[in-house]
């Protein structure tokens, strides 16, 4: 076969063929991997919900709904029930007040508003300092542990702000942000529980009516 001459039209034709082929390959790869990726994300979410809520026998993901926090934001709530009776919720919460940006957590409460457990889903806090929040606030040492705290008694706050929770050493801003995410989760849960601000997670239709201190 005669070799194509190195002319501008031939070069453009070659580049076009390469781009079309690469695009087709990427589209095929995406088609075959998107399904497993979504299944993996769903499985990870299901595990996280099980970790932070009382034992349940429903499908909290399919029963999820949105609820409005006290500051007007909306959070996703996964209701947990057993034998048809509510036992608690998992709340997908976040805060943008972290030392290095947004912190995402999933927080579990029982019917009385007691914090059952939490899991940090995403953060960019400093390794060895702010990143300690994953375990710091569930450790039984001094006043670190938030597990078992009743937010019905009021919001959680670090001792420096008049609260009773010990901040992560040298990470006050991260600690405030973490507790802010917990408090936001509870406000959404109680707002929905009171019949205000709860919306359908699919349609969005209504169903019922600061920083400071030392850090890293």
Q: Would you kindly provide a written description of the structure presented here, covering whatever features stand out?
A:
The protein is built from 3 helices and 7 strands; from the N terminus they run αβββββααββ. The chain has 216 residues and is an alpha+beta fold. A 7-stranded antiparallel β-sheet has the order 5-4-3-2-1-6-7, sandwiched between helices. The radius of gyration is 23 Å and the shape is extended.
Mean pLDDT: 84
As residue ranges, the low-confidence spans are 200-214
Instruction: Bin the helical content.
Output: 25-40%
The number of helices is 3
Strand arrangement across the biggest beta sheet: 5-4-3-2-1-6-7
Structural class: alpha+beta
State the total count of DSSP E strands.
7
Task: Please give the radius of gyration in angstroms.
Answer: 23 Å
Strand percentage, roughly?
Answer: 15-25%
* Largest sheet composition: 7 strands, antiparallel
End-to-end separation: 66 Å
Order of helices and strands: HEEEEEHHEE
Shape verdict: extended
């Amino acid at each position: 076969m005669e070799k194509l001459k190195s002319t501008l039209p031939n070069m453009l034709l070659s580049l076009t063929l390469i781009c079309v082929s690469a695009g087709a390959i990427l589209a095929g790869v995406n088609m075959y991997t998107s399904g497993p990726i979504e299944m993996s994300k769903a499985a990870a979410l299901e595990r996280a919900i099980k970790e932070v809520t009382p034992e349940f026998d429903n499908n909290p993901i399919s029963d999820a709904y949105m609820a409005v926090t006290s500051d007007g934001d909306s959070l996703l709530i996964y209701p947990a029930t057993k034998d048809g009776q509510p036992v608690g919720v998992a709340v997908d919460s976040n805060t943008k007040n972290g030392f290095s940006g947004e912190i995402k957590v999933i927080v579990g409460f029982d019917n009385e508003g007691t914090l059952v457990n939490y899991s940090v889903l995403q953060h960019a806090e400093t390794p060895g300092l702010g990143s300690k929040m994953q375990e710091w606030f569930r450790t039984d040492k001094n006043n670190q542990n938030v597990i078992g705290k009743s937010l019905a008694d009021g919001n959680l706050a670090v001792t420096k702000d008049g609260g009773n929770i010990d901040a992560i050493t040298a990470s006050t801003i991260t600690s405030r942000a973490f507790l802010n995410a917990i408090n936001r989760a509870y406000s959404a849960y109680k707002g929905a529980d009171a019949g205000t601000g709860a919306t359908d997670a699919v349609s969005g239709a209504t169903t019922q009516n600061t920083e400071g201190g030392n850090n890293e």
